[in-house]
Amino acid sequence: MAIETVTPSTALITSDIVLFGLIAATLGLIFWLASGPTPFWKKFFAWVPALLLCYFVPAFYNTVGLIDGENNSLYNPIASRVLLPAALVLLTLSIDLKGILRLGPKLLFVFVAGTVGIVLGAIVSFQVMEWVHPPAVAGDTWKGMAALAGSWIGGGANMVAMREVYEVDATLFGQFAVVDVAMASLLMAALLFVANRSAQLDARSGADTAAIDEMKSRIAAYEAANARIPTLNDLMIIVAVAFGFVGLAHAIANPLAAWFGQFEWAARFSLDSSFVWVVLISTLAGLILSFTRARRLEDAGAARIGTVFLYFLIACIGMQMDFMRLFDRLELIAIGAIWMLVHVLVIWGAARLVKAPMFYIGVGSMGNVGAAASAPVVAAAFHPTLAPVGVLLGTVGYATGTLIAYLVGQILRVMAGQ
């Protein structure tokens, strides 16, 4: 009988506890530098997003042999099976659907058009590249595109969820993370440029801006009345809600996956995977909580804590990546460019159809592509009191991004013939 041998790790750090400390310290250092302690770092992070460093610095550790990114228990089960669903719960419970509906039908129409543009962009870019350069979409490229759809419809948590659902290779995921940051950064730069000229552009197009003025006063009043400094009770309740529902999701997911495993068709839709059900149940739990008093936990910073979990998860994914192979497939940038162009054309056409102001285009587009992390920046560029509108639309993406990206993945899977 052959004896299987395991090659010992040659990494300098092999302890999971030491690795945990290194990742935590790295994230803390990145965000401290991003706060701009010196003029150099202010300029540096104006061009290099902190998110990208949270992914690439751990990848660098893995590349040079400081750590062994794959042979540890930090990513699985801690980050992917615990922190990811916890982040989904906290990021979706803050959704104020009633408040979003009061923003007006035009804004919602433009935002939904942006989502449709992302879905169409995935299909169009895949088909165009299949005609022009078939190797670009060969193999598992569709899986990486499904993950990117999760980011551009929802956010980082949705992208990571799709990475897990479709088992996207760490290097391919990293390549699409580059596409994500590159295209999203270009879009944000363009929208910030437009924001400074929105009054002239709205006047030229005859857009109705009355709803924006009403929004400004209402949002300012809400922020003044509800924001508070979190107490220890608040933080303990937030943690209890997050991890309590993570436990419940895992308890329900395992028997559900086993039941669907009886059917051959279920495997094609990944319904026999317990992790898929963990993601869906966690998202649904957050949505249900958003209709209860639990939504007030957002006033104490529930989404911030969820974002902390998310960034730790991103770092754990990054440490599995082979940094040297990151730019092997630059043709993926072409896929992202075509994809983004379709999104912009669709949302611009929808806005012109209903004579929506430029603010709706800006926050509707970035509410999809940048989610709650970047949409407030674009919204505030139009007016500081409008930043929460970006948060509201961005959080809707968190709720819908996983499901819609999953469907996009299924469409691309068929197009890829798999």
UniProtKB/TrEMBL annotation:
Pfam families: DUF819 (PF05684). It comes from the Bacteria. Keywords: Membrane, Transmembrane, Transmembrane helix. The chain crosses the membrane at residues 12-32, 44-62, 74-95, 107-129, 172-195, 235-253, 265-289, 301-320, 332-351, 358-382, 388-408. PANTHER family: DUF819 DOMAIN-CONTAINING PROTEIN (PTHR34289:SF8), PROTEIN, PUTATIVE (DUF819)-RELATED (PTHR34289). This is DUF819 domain-containing protein.
